[in-house]
Amino acid sequence: MKATSLDDYLDGFSAFPTRRRKRLSMLREAYTYGVPGMITKSMTDRLAQSGHYTFHIGTPDPEMRRIASWMLTNEKDRNKIAKFIPRIWKRGGREDLKLVGLLLANMSDEELGENGWTVFLQLIQQRVSVEVFLETAEEFLRGGRTLPDDTWIQDAAAQSEVWSQLMILLLSLDESRCEAHTVLIKQTPQGGELFERIRNRLLERLP
After folding, report:
1. Beta carbons of 64 and 93 less than 8 angstroms apart
2. By three-state DSSP, how is residue 70 classified?
3. Domain boundary assignment for the chain
4. Alpha-carbon distance 136 to 134, whole Å?
5. How confident is the model over 115-168, as pLDDT tens digits?
6. How far apart, in whole angstroms, are the C-alpha atoms of residue 105 and residue 137?
7. Which of 2, 37, 79, 112 has the fewest Cβ atoms surrounding its Cβ within 10 A?
């Protein structure tokens, strides 16, 4: 019988499963709790397609935070979570990406084994939606991290066109930093409509 609430479902596990496939299956099921009844499958399928996600369930933010909290509470070895994060990200569901952002934002660099910003950036080998990137970056800031320093941003931008665009998105969260990266903002190759709106807003504020 299906559990009646997310808490009931999570209470059915004494710990985070040890097998990777079981972990992914457990999370995929957990995402289904709390989804508003008005959300239809056709709508979520269209959202998944438009955002290039493998699935988009529509799990509300409180439930996503509850799942992340449960993982961090019930898996004492944070290194295991850190090693599992790339597998969650790789599956590519909208809720998977949201969960990764919450986990990264609530784990220390020591637990992750590296600077959290670096871990996040290394997950992005191909394009990711503006919304997903900014959502995770904002979670980092809410969690107490500060934006990376100017050298880190310049070094990251030099790695690829995608990362260069992501650094502009990062700078949009603290526009006082933009003047130091005028060349980057002006010369980074063109992106999508939302990216260009953000870039143009920054350009308008440059001296």
Report:
1. no
2. helix
3. 1-146, 148-207
4. 5
5. 999 999 999 977 789 999 999 999 999 999 999 999 999 999 999 999 999 999
6. 8
7. 37
